[in-house]
What does this fold into?
Amino acid sequence: MKVVTGVVGNDIHVVANRLIELSLHARGFEVFNLGVNTYLEEFFDAVVETDADILLISSLNGEAEGWSREIKILKSKYKNLDNLVMVIGGNLVVGTASPETIVPKYKNYGFDLVFHQVDLNTGLDTLEEFLKERNK
Amino acid sequence: MSKEKLLIDVGSTYFKVSTSSSIKQHLRDFNKDIFDDLIYKCGEMIHNYPKDDVYICSSANGGLSTLIVGLTHSFSLKYAKNIAFNSGINIIETVVYQDIKDYSIPSDLIDVVIVVGGINSASNIFGDDLYSYLEKLNYSNIVFVGNKKDAPTIAKNIENLVVLPNIIDDKLHIVEENLKEYLTNLYQADIVGKEDIKHLYDITSNQIYSTPYIVNKTLPLIDARFSVVDPFILIDIGGATTDIHYSKDLVDNNIVTQNEYDRLVFKKLGVYKSKESLIFSAKNNEFVYELLTHLKVTENIFEEQSEKALKVLMQLAIFLVLCKMSHYKQAYINLKLLSVNSIVLTGGITKVLNKDEIEGIISFFYKKILSSDHNPTTIMDSNYDIWTMAITDKQSKG
It folds into this structure.
């Protein structure tokens, strides 16, 4: 399966981004890594160009929230993204907040899976289970 | 041993003829065929040179036009636009494929349509919507530079489609060479295919090139003749077009390409053949009236046919082209003009304006538009060294 990934907004956490790419590769995904400082439109455009199944956005400095508010509006402008699996992970707030608060908020922004301060491998295990269930 | 060479540049307004001892320019007679006009004015000199020693370039056609159909703004359209611009092609329209039904059909004849989208492992991207749009479009050439899997189906449905390798690789990076070569050749073919230019092969046995292509090839050699401090821009203002060549360092862009310099051709920004559209652009620029006041003239100058009017048009062209490339006006390319150390002027402008007149305009631009006292060095290519260096270098390598 094809995954587009990258770090959203003005965030240069390149090490985490590279680890995500390597881990996805190791699990057999075809990865398109847009790197750091990526804008939302570039994520969706990359999905269209690659015909990707999954969009996995990461964020380490808490910028994701500001950007994620725009997701529904932006995604609605694309005509063929209904089956796209949307995933976000990393440190999703500035300051602290519990996953109980954060996860529903991001799901409401349009993400299928939300991993706030969750270990990378645990997150990817959950993604694989989600895909298995979805494809049954 | 270096042989004496005769260099001829056929512009939209002037011929330039250069020998080792002199450069002369002649206003073209538009009632005459280019060849006849050239022979009438310079026949005696031309006949002194064997065909092997005559080198010609031409910008008399003013460039080609393109319409690009692509999948997304961030990748396919962005890459195709970049390649088209750098090949000297004017972009008439870009169409996002998913919304293709919403676009109106341009009435002008399009020289080349570029269809692009998807990495090679993607498929079934283009379909009937593309074919019905193209049926209504009036174009001369069409090229597909998108995903490999769709190419055979598209080729079956579109007559005379040229298929080239995808300009997007599997890492979503740009691959520019194939399309660039195709467009450059098309531009070249357009020039030499013109009956007027074909006739010029009677006096040369060398390939006739397009002038912007030749000038662009000189830029890496420019240090040999001028004290240019990088990064620099080169502005070539002619009768029909204004070309701007710039170091890649001046662009905020994540497109990685092999060429050190890019160029843009502004088709409707010239002081002779495109005079009306230059004036139209000027009147739509909110700072132009202030500029005219600065030059101590009024807009009545646009109606005049005088040396003063030509000077003002040249000055306006400098100002407008800098505006088009600056952050003042969001365009395809915005250059970091505050980082420019040198501005090189070539073309007919160097025969009309002096250095002070040019520097006055550049400094007005920086103050008004960029609110800065930045003052790049102005370098005048008054002897057309850039053109002569390029054409002889190209030919000696060629």
Q: What stands out?
A: Chain B touches chain A at residues 71-76, 98, 117-119, 121-123, 125, 168, 171-172 (CB under 8 Å).
